[in-house]
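Researcher: Next entry in the queue.
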Amino acid sequence: SPPPPALSFLENPSNVTSSLGKTVRLRCRVRGAGEPPEMGWRRDGHPLELADSDQAQVPLSEDVWLGTSQLSIPAVQLSDAGRYQCWARAGGEQL
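Model: Structure for this entry, 95 residues:
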């Protein structure tokens, strides 16, 4: 049987509707084998370089990692609307 993928999503951000001025948080979780996963965010396909995100990598076993990234959008405005995607990279594989 084929080996399990090195990287898989456990939780993807869900659709969020918010009132203007509120803080919105989007969360993403991945499971990675080998090295800790690198994670980040895109909006409408563009990388969010300066995104306010918290990340944590927790070892589940010797070579399996759980990566969590939470993106915060403080005081949300109409200009923040868009399609947000979480990406993850580990061991040459990207999601």
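Model: The longest strand covers residues 24-33.
Researcher: Noted, moving on.
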